[in-house]
Amino acid sequence: MDKQQRLNLFLKETCVFIEKYYSSSITDISFEPEEEWVKVVITGENDSVCKIYSDGEEIIIMFGESHWHIDNYSEPCDYSKIYENTIDSILELLKGELVTYSCWIGGETIGGSSFLKSEVSDITKELSGFFKNTDIVHIKSWNEELIKTAVK
């Protein structure tokens, strides 16, 4: 089994587990097989949507207005690192511990990322050093409303 096939199988099995045993924070989960990879969509309340892909021999997680890649580039590949990091990210997200943000200037997004949950004032203060001139920050936590806050 090659790397893409292993990641496809892992993602399917992980999301079946989540749907069966960790479903209290989700309203729906769907599997959308693509030609050579897998796409999973997990939905929750308040427009919470997490898309997880096994495309390009890596795991890609999209939530809110951000996304991140999970892979292990060493040879031979250490699959356990990919598996553990993916599971940790999904569970932290569904528990509301992992939050995403995006920075905006004049209605245009300039970047974003994810972080462990913090106070909004701490987040905006921290981001001002990374994304200069940000005037609005969008912050999204699982099953919570999108927060749009002005940066002073």
What is the name of the CATH topology of the largest domain?
Metal Transport, Frataxin, Chain A
CATH C-level category of the largest domain: Alpha Beta
Compute the gyration radius: what is it? 16 Å
Number of strands: 9
* Class per helix and strand makeup: alpha+beta
Helix/strand layout:
Blueprint: H1 3-21, E1 28-33, E2 38-43, E3 49-53, E4 59-63, E5 66-70, H2 79-94, E6 98-105, E7 108-116, H3 120-127, E8 136-140, E9 147-150
Antiparallel strand pairs: 1-2, 2-3, 3-4, 4-5, 6-7, 6-8, 8-9
Describe the 3D structure.
It is a single chain. The protein has 152 residues and is of the alpha+beta class. The chain has two domains: 3-94, Metal Transport, Frataxin, Chain A, CATH 3.30.920; 98-150. Helix content is 28%, strand content 35%. It contains three helices and nine strands. It has helices at residues 3-21, 79-94, 120-127, and strands at 28-33, 38-43, 49-53, 59-63, 66-70, 98-105, 108-116, 136-140, 147-150. The protein has a five-stranded antiparallel sheet with strand order 1-2-3-4-5, covered by helices on one side. Strand 6 (98-105) and strand 7 form a beta hairpin. The longest helix is centred in the first third of the chain and has 19 residues, at 3-21. The N and C termini lie far apart (53 Å).
List keywords for this structure.
globular, alpha+beta, five-stranded antiparallel β-sheet, 3 helices, 35% strand, four-stranded antiparallel β-sheet, 152 residues, Metal Transport, Frataxin, Chain A
